[in-house]
């Protein structure tokens, strides 16, 4: 039986929404106005300050889902399955953001929107397919407990895809046109680093608020189904 979880106080919600809104708006304006322009790419390089933070969140999501799934396998509490599902939902949304913003940046930097030889691009596409498979198989299983158990094992597949995506530009000798890790030595001026870290913070706040809202929605849906089953 899942323990009852009290929703957060509305005042906390308001403060959290305010922090997310202000940080996102501030991060967007700073990315447009503050860092210097890369001459080879022009203004289009500013999509970097969206692309990289969103990619980070897209890689964290499957890892969180895997941790929640492991806890579910040990405790058999559906709360953890719901948290895992929510994390993968958001990972998929942010991964789509990466696939949308990446070709725009790639076209300005490489002259082509999609380089088939680039390891990071291909691995991110595989990550999206892994997450999509997770949702499809989860939808096809009618039993709630069987759905949770299958989803837990599929979360491992998504987590492996996320790790391979992270390591694509680190472990492969010739990964393609994609630049190396932004955390490597050199490569970025101080204004670019400051703007990037501001974006990372803002989009992590966005992930947290969306995680909270999505989890609440899933809980309400489960309560609705339970009430319908009891009435029938």
Automatic annotation (TrEMBL):
Q: What is the protein's membrane topology class? A: Multi-pass membrane protein
> GO cellular-component terms in the record?
plasma membrane
Single GO molecular-function term? heme binding
Q: Name one GO biological process term.
A: cytochrome complex assembly
Mind listing the UniProt keywords for this protein, alphabetically? Cytochrome c-type biogenesis, Membrane, Transmembrane, Transmembrane helix
Q: Which domain of life is it from?
A: Bacteria
- Transmembrane segment boundaries: 12-34, 54-74, 86-107, 119-141, 148-169, 196-214
**Domain Cytochrome c assembly protein stretches:** 12-171
The answer to whether keyword Transmembrane applies is yes
Localization per Swiss-Prot or TrEMBL: Membrane
Q: What does this protein do?
A: Required for the export of heme to the periplasm for the biogenesis of c-type cytochromes.
As for family, the record states:
Belongs to the CcmC/CycZ/HelC family.
Q: What is this protein called?
A: Heme exporter protein C
